[in-house]
Every structure is written in C-alpha cells, then in structure tokens.
Design brief:
217 residues; alpha/beta
C-alpha cells in the first residue's frame, strides 16, 4: 500500500468553509503529484462540499454512534451519505471512553465507514486494536502542535506500538510531525503513515509545506 498522510483540518479558521475547500483542493493536487495517499479530516459541515469536489478520501473529525433523540450528535449515516469515507475518533482533543469507542466502531462498520482511531498511550492502543478499526494513530498528547516529533521523542514507543497493532489495524503515528525527515523516520520505524495538522493547516504556504513533507517519494 502507498504511505498514508492524514491531514486533520481541526477547527482552524484557515481550514473551515471556503478555506477548507481551498485546502482540500491543494491536498488533492499533491496526492496526484506524489506517490502517497492523502486523506483529510474535516468538520462534518464541510464534508459534502469537499467530497463532491476532490478525489481524495474525506473523513469526519468525529462521529457518534447514537440515533434518535440525541440532538447535536453526528450520526454515521449522515456523514456516509454526505460523501465521507470514514471518521477520525478519540483524538486527544475529542477523547472518548472505551465503551463509546467500541460502540462507535461497531456502528460505523455497519454502514461501511472506515475508522481512524487515535491512541494516546500503548495500553489504549492495545485495547483499541482488539476492536480492529481500519487504522490506529499513535499520538502522544503533549507533543501535538509542538513541532517536537514523536519520531524523535518516542521512537521506542512507536516500535512497541507497531508490535501491538500488527495484523489488526494499519499503524500510523502523529504528534509534532512537521518535516519530511519526520515522515521518513515514521515509515522506517514501521508505521504506514502519519497524522498531521498544523504543519499544513497553519502554514503560510500549505501547498509548499505538503509538497516538501511528501518529497521523500
């Protein structure tokens, strides 16, 4: 499989509404130029307009498992019908308890949505791996957005993470990743890709930043 780059748009003003569509098109362009699969995590309200305008896979930043009298919930069917490939869940900025993670993965599988589940430590990664989401992203919360890459700060943890999820889910890593060297090291350590955000979304030149990071191919 091609190396994977998942870009989390979060709720940055640079990646909402019209700006989200503009950034998505940049990601779509880079995906065509590089031998890498790029997926993007956008706000649920932006899924439809983006999914119909790009060929790369679009993920929701969060999804709930409930249906019915649950005002404000983001249902799996709603994002599926609006063009989502799947959803990110359990990001450190939107953490879930294990029971909720289990129910969410189950409901998403029913409607054919893929899941990228985040894990903030090895114990959590082990528990989540038993649920067999399509991807698990190992992110140490204290490194997120710092520019201090997990590949430099926690390389042994990444190796242990790979052993835990092997054969169950596709392993990714994130937190502080911002350069092509970080990406290259992540792959050398055994992951199949990275989860990244501010290095792209907050860059004054997102296209250049993404082309640079993926220039190892």
């Amino acid at each position: 499989m091609k190396p994977v780059v998942i870009i989390n748009f979060k709720a940055y003003e640079e990646a909402i509404g019209k700006n989200a569509l503009k950034l998505a098109k940049i990601c779509d362009y880079v995906a065509k130029k590089r031998n890498v699969e790029i997926m993007i995590c956008v706000q649920a309200s932006d899924i439809y307009q983006i999914a119909k305008n790009v060929k790369i896979k679009v993920l929701s930043q969060h999804v709930d498992y409930q249906y019915g009298k649950f005002t404000g919930c983001i249902s799996p069917i709603s994002i599926k019908e609006n063009g989502a490939y799947g959803s990110l869940i359990n990001h450190s900025e939107k953490p879930l308890d294990f029971e909720t993670i289990e129910k969410t993965i189950k409901e998403c599988k029913k409607v054919g949505l893929k899941i990228v589940a985040c894990a903030s430590n090895l114990d959590e990664a082990k528990k989540i791996s038993n649920l067999k989401p399509e991807y698990i992203a190992f992110e140490v919360p204290e490194l997120i957005g710092t520019g201090n890459s997990i590949t430099k700060e926690k390389p042994e943890s990444i190796k242990n993470f790979i052993k835990i999820v092997k054969g169950r889910s596709i392993p990714l890593c994130g937190a502080g990743i911002s350069t092509k060297e970080d990406f290259k090291t992540a792959l050398e350590l055994g992951t199949k890709g990275i989860l990244i955000s501010s290095a792209i979304t907050k860059s004054p030149n997102p296209k250049k930043a993404l082309m640079d990071i993926t220039s190892i191919f």
